[in-house]
């Protein structure tokens, strides 16, 4: 039994057909699309239930303490990253143009002020004076400290926000769309189902055949043996047979009895004839020997 099942399982796992093709043969058309839709519906349903249950809870109540601590511990690194990127941006040509635009907007209605400043700095452009100072600000170590303090404070305020507020800011439909996209990205159902079964099971087919099948056969056999009697009791086979026999007409029962009896009597007749012939031959043989 075990060898037979192993051979069949090995044959099934080595097929070049995809899971989708096998499901199509079983009548499950468009299985990848259907499974993907059901998976998305299931996950979105779980999100709906979770959001309803936790709508009034704050972020601090939802996020595990270890993650909160990890977020706080990562703030200095985040500050250094922001400062580094800020310095790189304002030191670039694009950053310089952006600063010029900001200055132009600021002094647009302050013509006299810009003229006054220009008197002090001479022929140099104002941007050439301001850009180096901004870069120096980003290079100072205390800038990271200032930014870290600000981020810690903002994180403390953010922890007090409830889920309803966060969902309202982002938008429930936006969140659901993001969940749907991430589900497809993390679980590419169509891609998986369209791969050959042989390719999907290449790394563990031998384990399934050599270890999984024997365990399955053994457990299955024990289950059948242990549940054989209760299963028959649940099926009420005695009642089913009795009901079926009771549903037969008298003529049908007579016909069945006569048919069975006729076959049995025929066998008895043939057996009697055979025995009679053998006995007759034996008696004749004995008579010849004695006579």
From TrEMBL:
Which keywords belong to this entry? Membrane, Transmembrane, Transmembrane helix
Q: Name one GO cellular component term.
A: endomembrane system
Q: Which InterPro entries match?
A: DUF445
The source's domain of life comes to Bacteria
Q: Where in the cell is it found?
A: Endomembrane system
N-terminal signal peptide:
none
Does Membrane appear among the keywords? Answer: yes
- Spans through the membrane: 267-290
Predominant place of localization = membrane
By sequence similarity, the record places it as follows: Belongs to the UPF0754 family.
Name the UniProt record assigns to this protein: PspA/IM30 family protein
